[in-house]
Specification:
With about 400 residues, the chain is mainly beta. It has helices at about 1-20, 145; strands at about 30-35, 50-55, 65, 70-75, 80-85, 90-100, 115, 120, 125-130, 140-145, 160-165, 165-170, 180-185, 190-195, 205-210, 215-220, 225-230, 235-240, 250-255, 255-260, 265-275, 280-285, 295-300, 300-305, 315, 325, 335-340, 340-345, 350-355, 365-370, 380-385, 385-390, 395-400. The chain has a five-stranded mixed beta sheet, with no helix packed on it.
Length: about 400
Amino acid sequence: MKKTLVALFTLAAITVTAQENIQWRGTDRSGVYNETGLLKSWPAEGPTLLWSYDGLGEGHSSVAIASEKIYILGVKDSIGSIFVFDLKGKLLNKKEYGKEWIESFNGSRGSITLNDGKLYLISGVGELYCYDQQTLNLIWKKNILTEYKASNIKWGIAESPLIVGDKVIATPGGKEHNVVALNKKTGELIWSCPGEGSPSAYCSPLYIKDQQVPLIVTMTGSYIIGIDADKGTKLWSVKNENKTFVHANTPVYGDNMILCTSGYGKGSTMLRLTNGGRSVEQVWFVAELDNRIGAMVKVGNYVYGSGDNNRFWYCADWKTGAIKYKEPGLAMGTIIADDGMLYCYTDKGDMLLVKANPEKFEIVSRFKITKGTKDHWAHPVIYKGILYVRHGDSLMAYKIK
């Protein structure tokens, strides 16, 4: 009995740790956070600003959080740096990692992924790094473009590494080595999938584990692809193109279905997994639902997001794609969800608190993000009742509980 209790407590501790490990778009890349008791409205001037930090440099990446520490990337004078803060906003450490993307829309792109005491990131020039989480000592690095005979893309690689078991997954976009799995401890190649040989498309991949064949799903320049997570075998692919070959949103998964959305006039495609994940069939396609880089969230039986060419905020039925509402007049932006509310951060700097209501776009509260520089593109993060907002050079922490 004693051994059983110890095992149960250990499992509980591991589960809590895993839940608190915030990576790209939360704990599971869905953009839906799992806290309760959050404020259902904010004061007119916005929620309380607990702290802010100016000096990150240029960048669009979001925070990652583990072991009560906050990790984020920034770029100054073409050199990327890792910043580490405690939860009160004190800078604990800073480490330069090397050359970054400065050819257009300068700054850090993908977010850090934290796993088993290690820190993983991919720079805009294709360098995949593994650091010790505590000391920030480099463990290994590998340029996935030069190593796997791939070319960089127009606006620089923008991918947050995906960790699955002992593997770190990345998308060089090469003809032969399209998607690769590396040993997360050493950087050695475990498997390589040729996919359809289509270039990388700014997309951070998704892991789906509840099928007979657990799989990696991502979007490359011209395809949505599903890959056996263990073997690296391509299971299926679906043609998916727009004029820019940009598909920056991580697919959204739920109810055995995968939603893939892109801007530049493409729209949203819903696929249903069949044969235990080994194949797919299209359920619906809606051109109007054309989010570019702000992602979408599934809340209940509905999906929420904003448009690109179709400049409105919308709600659509998850199962059918039927549009429930279209709200014009606001800039497009990023979206996350928590506790029955939507957090919509427009690219004009407005932070909106909206009820997750399929009947109408009901703004409860709003305020302006005035700190920071350049583009309002980084995706917000919620952790322990705090809303973290990155705007270029600045990181802000707002109390929302």
